[in-house]
From TrEMBL:
<feature type="domain" description="HTH tetR-type">
    <location>
        <begin position="17"/>
        <end position="75"/>
    </location>
</feature>
<dbReference type="InterPro" id="IPR009057">
    <property type="entry name" value="Homeodomain-like_sf"/>
</dbReference>
<keyword id="KW-0804">Transcription</keyword>
<dbReference type="Pfam" id="PF00440">
    <property type="entry name" value="TetR_N"/>
</dbReference>
<dbReference type="InterPro" id="IPR001647">
    <property type="entry name" value="HTH_TetR"/>
</dbReference>
<keyword id="KW-0238">DNA-binding</keyword>
<keyword id="KW-0805">Transcription regulation</keyword>
<dbReference type="InterPro" id="IPR050109">
    <property type="entry name" value="HTH-type_TetR-like_transc_reg"/>
</dbReference>
<dbReference type="GO" id="GO:0003700">
    <property type="term" value="F:DNA-binding transcription factor activity"/>
</dbReference>
<protein>
    <submittedName>
        <fullName>Regulatory protein, tetR family</fullName>
    </submittedName>
</protein>
<feature type="DNA-binding region" description="H-T-H motif">
    <location>
        <begin position="38"/>
        <end position="57"/>
    </location>
</feature>
<dbReference type="InterPro" id="IPR036271">
    <property type="entry name" value="Tet_transcr_reg_TetR-rel_C_sf"/>
</dbReference>
<dbReference type="GO" id="GO:0000976">
    <property type="term" value="F:transcription cis-regulatory region binding"/>
</dbReference>
Length: 194
């Protein structure tokens, strides 16, 4: 009997997860267009009742926090998919950049939302920043980045390049954009030797 009830609960949990994911994705679309949109507008975009959104997220801030957490979780997965520990540093940097661009295109509102510095999402973002510096350190050790470069400064420049890329370019080809970001980070904008 316990096995039957456990198997009946699984689809409900999976269904609940799909419902939450649908709400979060709809909220991203709606709030990216109109940051002042109501939870009712989010529910309508998600194709669920307003009470469903309120049952899952007690407040608008709880919804925004959940969106940020989902986006940062996807960023962390995008970084892992680039194999920063095992791939050659420049290969990993390119792959991670393309993956991050894909995630950032999908979550512009959630990733731009400010959060409490003591929140789990803020801590996850700090871990991502540390991993970025570690990867840049590997690229530096491989000779792709000058030995005198401050790696935290390089990380900040890298983040700025990604942000500006998304602000001004069509992100339909993340691999091409990643190549531009990495090339600009590593070689700058000065003239190339002939």
């Amino acid at each position: 009997m316990g096995d039957v009830s456990a198997s009946l609960e699984r689809p409900l949990r999976a269904d609940a997860e799909r419902s939450v994911r649908t709400i979060l994705e709809a909220a991203e679309r709606v709030l990216a267009r109109d940051p002042g949109a109501s939870l009712e507008q989010v529910a309508q975009a998600a194709g669920v009742a307003r009470t469903t959104v309120h049952r899952r997220f007690a407040t608008r801030q709880a919804l925004v926090d959940a969106m940020s957490a989902a986006a940062v979780e996807q960023l962390a997965a995008a970084i892992e998919a680039g194999r920063p520990e095992t791939a050659p540093p420049l290969v990993a940097l390119h792959e991670i950049t393309a993956n991050v661009l894909r995630v950032k295109v999908s979550w512009p509102f959630a990733l731009a939302s400010s959060m409490r510095p003591d929140s789990p999402v803020a801590e996850a973002q700090r871990r991502i920043s540390r991993r970025c510096v570690e990867l840049l350190g590997k690229a530096q050790a491989a000779g792709a980045i000058d030995a005198a470069v401050d790696l935290d400064w390089a990380r900040r420049v890298y983040y700025a390049l990604i942000g500006e890329t998304l602000a001004g370019d069509d992100a339909s080809d993340p691999d091409a954009l990643a190549a531009r970001v990495v090339d600009t980070l590593l070689r700058g904008i000065g003239p190339r030797p002939a």
